[in-house]
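Quick one: co-fold with glyceraldehyde-3-phosphate.
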Amino acid sequence: MPCGLSHLVVLVHQIGCGMRQEAMAFSVDYFFVGGNWKCNGTRESVKKLVADLNAASIADDVDVVVAPPFVYIDQVLGSITDRIEVAAQNCWVGKGGAFTGEVSAEMLKDIGLNWVILGHSERRQLIGEANEFVGMKEAYALNNGLKVIGCIGETLEQREAGKTIEVVAQQLEAMRGSVNAKNCEDLARQEDIDGFLVGGASLIGPDFATIVNSVNAKKVAA
Ligand SMILES: O=C[C@H](O)COP(=O)(O)O
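Sure, here it is.
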């Protein structure tokens, strides 16, 4: 799905049916893999994961971004290879202030982050983030110098036309569930798949490296 903004990476996800996944869609010749660690990890497990990623061989022409939980971002920034960028999993909709528990875009920039994930399906479903709110977050983050990994679902038009299930089913059929080290090459070869936002498999260094390097399967197929 063309986004028209060089700093906005658009992901597609489905909400409903108890299932969700993100698949990246670009209009340009580009491959990107994001590792969303979600609410997982300890200092020790993060240390091991970063060591595994630092030791991994990563193909040249793929951008890699990992998103640790907030409390481990500084640890990751201080230890991960320059080859891999770091993202936050969320940020506040505007400037900081009396917003207990929130983290502002300015704070992310201040600690050296350039990326943030916004509108993830889990935040839409579990936290109740609405489209407009997510849109305001994205605009604020972009205006404050962050690159945004924006997650979106089916369109309002498709939903109003009663096509949500059809669209979700087609997307699931194309993706066959979460991306992992076993299915990543098949998925990467698909013409309309140009990258992944990886959840569970991003917590296993060698598996994440295999997914990152699935760009090679795409090049062979091209
Ligand atoms: O952020 C990643 C997506 O929610 C997919 O997660 P998963 O790969 O664990 O299914």
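If it helps, The radius of gyration is 17 Å.
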